[in-house]
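Tokens for chain A. Residues wanted.
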């Protein structure tokens, strides 16, 4: 079974002002949970805003993302499956 791509919006107050060490600890905690759920879920990257993070994950299904959120303690406020991607080169003909 192939993994599907999701973006997870997490409401985390003041996350944008976290120190590097706080972000490192959060990443370590997330990675520990991911090891337990592997190979059906993978974290690709996250974007940190003032009071939210936007995380890109590959997962078998949405329930695994919710399980990760529950086990890690990081909220999964909104989960959206990504159906495709465009960028500035999309307009070019092949």
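Reply:
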């Amino acid at each position: 079974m192939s993994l599907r791509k999701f973006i997870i919006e997490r409401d985390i107050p003041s996350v944008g002002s976290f120190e590097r060490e706080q972000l490192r600890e959060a990443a370590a905690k997330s990675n520990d949970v991911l090891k337990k759920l592997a190979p059906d879920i993978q974290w690709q990257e996250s974007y940190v805003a003032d009071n939210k993070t936007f995380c890109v994950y590959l997962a078998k299904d949405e329930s695994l993302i919710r399980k990760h959120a529950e086990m890690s303690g990081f909220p999964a406020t909104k989960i959206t499956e990504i159906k495709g991607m465009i960028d500035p080169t999309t307009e070019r003909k092949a």
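The longest helix spans residues 20-37. DSSP finds two helices and four strands in the chain.
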